[in-house]
Design a protein that fits this description.
alpha+beta
Length: 73
């Protein structure tokens, strides 16, 4: 395996970090985001402190966190 290849699995240093640091609610949130991005065919990156970088097949957009934090049902 090449050094830069991704390892997909149920164990490893990132899984260990998540197990140590994340609550069950946070794990559930990750699963929801993963399913949502697959359903909507989106890529999401959390590289920014107060925004989310979202990319669809045709459009990229950086969304400020106030858009989703202040959202009313």
């Amino acid at each position: 395996m090449k050094e830069d290849e991704e390892i997909i699995g149920i164990t490893g240093p990132i899984v260990d970090l998540f197990n140590k640091e994340l609550t069950q609610e946070e794990w559930n949130a990750l699963a929801i985001v993963h399913r949502m991005t697959n359903r909507l065919c989106l890529g999401i990156r959390f590289d920014w402190k107060s925004s989310i970088d979202v990319k669809s097949q045709t459009t990229p957009q950086i969304v400020d966190e106030s858009v989703f934090l202040d959202r009313k049902k």
